[in-house]
Structures are given as structure tokens and as C-alpha cells.
Amino acid sequence: MRITQKTWDNYVKLLRKFSDRATNEMKAYLATQNALYNEGNMTLYQYRENLIRYAYALATKYGEGAGAAACEMYDAVSALENANVPPALPARTATYGEVAKAVLGTLKTGNDEIVSASVGRQVKLVGVDTMMQNALRDGAEWAWIPRGDTCAFCLTLASRGWQKASENAIKDGHAEHIHANCDCTYAVRFSDNVDVEGYDPEQYRKMYYDAPLEDGQAPSAKNRVNAMRRQFYKENGTTEIEV
């Protein structure tokens, strides 16, 4: 049995829609608040508080949508396999403190794109967390499926193939290594009878091992990932690659 590429693409596009809406709405709000602050119509404290409150509202609203979409995908896979597991439960959305940390941290860059993307990342995180937490609950397997403009690190994760769900991929209650700019995310399954069409961990593993190390470099995971980045840049002029 396979999850078709069309089905998977529709799923990641839905997740992307939620994160993009949060990102774009935050960007528009930032523009209005920047103008008011620069004109002297509010204090720095008011400016920051306004941004945090608005970002929190967006992260909650669109995070709930991402969680619901992940639940639907999880339940569809369990039904396909007759897995006999409870309905999926959505992961919690970002707390006010988590949003404040993301907003204040990215404000230091002075780049509105980065600030806005941090809110979209909070939304994406809910979808990934939902898949992971339910997989852990039910003893499922997962695989990191790359999509879109992805990076060497994501392809390294994808090269590991299907693995039993493990707490090792979770830090402080959340999935690790979630990027705002790609559509990579976890797929789950309950037996080795199911796969995602187009997912080829052997291809990603070959890219990982074939990327040329620099003279004298040890074949460590860090050095191999950096070698992939150099290879991508040499071939495409960017450290990302379309999958």
C-alpha cells in the first residue's frame, strides 16, 4: 500500500497554507506597527507587546488548523492499515511564552521576514508535533519526508528511512529541527506494508555518502552534512535543493 504523491502533496500544501497565512498576516501587521513606532506613536514596550499578542493570536488560530490537518492524515493512514488505534489528538499550540521568545529573539535581527517566518514556524510545529506525539502513543513508525526547497540536514534525516517513533527526536516537548522555509515533515505508518510514493531514502543516503569531504576531514555526520551543502552550492548556487 502506498500514500500517493498527490495525497501527500495535498497534505503538505495544506500545512503550508496555514503557516503561510500566519507568516503573511504577521508581516502585514509588522509594517503597520513599524510605521506607528517610528512616528513616535508608541513606546518600545507597547510595540513589542503588540507584536507578541498578535503573533500569539495567529499562532493559535492557524496552529489549530495545522493540528487538525495532521490528525486527519494520521487517522487516514491508520484506517488504511486497519491499525485499530484511537483517533489522533492534536498537539497543543504555542504558548504565549514560546511566541514571545520567538518574536523577541528574531526582532534582534531587524529583519521583518525573519520575524514573520518565526510565527509561521510555530504553526508548522503543531502539525509535526501532532504526528510525532500520536506515533509515540501508538508505537508507530515515522519517516522524515523531504519536500520543496530542502536542505542538507533535512535530506540527512530523510536518509534514515522508516524508524520506530522515539523520544530522541523531541526536545522540550517539541519536534527538533523544524524549518520555516521548507515543506519537509513526518509521515507515519503502522507496518512495513505502507510507504509514501516518491520517498527514496536510498537516494538521500547516496547523496550523503557521495558528497566529497575536504582533504583530511573525518567522515563525521557534521562534516558530511557540510559537504552536501558545498555540493548543493556548487551545482545550484544555493545550499538548498528542490525535492
Describe the model.
The chain is mostly helical and 243 residues long. The chain has one domain. The protein is 59% helix and 11% strand. It has seven helices and nine strands. It has helices spanning 5-38, 44-80, 96-107, 112-138, 152-158, 201-210, 221-236; strands at residues 2-3, 141-145, 149-151, 163-164, 170-171, 174-175, 185-189, 195-196, 240-242. It has a three-stranded antiparallel beta sheet. The chain has a two-stranded parallel sheet with strand order 1-8. A two-stranded antiparallel sheet has the order 3-9. A hairpin with a 2-residue loop joins β5 and β6 (174-175). The longest helix has 37 residues, at 44-80. It is globular. The two termini are 22 Å apart. The relative contact order is 0.14. The model has no long low-confidence stretch (mean pLDDT 91).
